[in-house]
Hints:
Distance between the termini: 29 Å
Strand order of the largest sheet: 1-2
Radius of gyration: 22 Å
Low-confidence stretches: 1-26, 220-237, 244-250
Amino acid sequence: MQQLYIQRFTMYAVTEVTNEQYKEPTGSRLVEVWESGLAKPPSVAIRSLHNVVNRYLRVTRPEAAEDISSGNVDIIVYLARHDNEEIFPQDIEQRFGVTRSTSCRVLGLMEQKGLIAREPVKRDARLKKIVLTNKSRHIAEVLRDNAKNMERILLEGLEDDQIRQFMHVLDVMQTNLVKTGLIGDESRYSSLEIQEQDFGESQVSQKPQVSQESQESCDGRNPHNRDSHDEYVSRILRMSQEMAIANNRR
């Protein structure tokens, strides 16, 4: 680890950095290093990697998904991952942190495009679940293949233990920020650590009861003729991480 710090810092150094200076690196000393410009601080490095991943996924986006907005892609991927569950508009609102009116508008446009359909639920015909069409199932499949290929490239040269430790570090960083209480309910931020023994069970989400009022508000087609314009924050990276976990178990 000591050698890694030295190597990392000397790549960006404007002055000579010696082993003696970083024999026992401390948090305060590292802050000085980052502030002096010798290396990127973790927050900047994470954002940089996130941007590179998104850029790669964008330039390698399959032709089948070329004309689909990022917001629509996110919903398609989410529905594909929960294909064996009943998904309602309320689930979309909670998953992506959007309002009811926004979800109604976006889902209505997706239905017009032939990307989703609404089917009645056997236990209550008044409720209509959201399902993928054959068109969007194909899009989800090619996106999944592209993301899996990207994940293989991203993790090339890393051992399983290194990946687990990296995910643990990310989880600690996220937890530190969430514990400040400044960014909302902690339940919104799931653990990033790899829990291999519980992986299968973790894919089944605990779904809340759907009220009739919530469902009826999205039954009709939305009259607004405009797209979502990327109102959702991309979830492709999270999907890719989960795929990597699945691949590591094989």
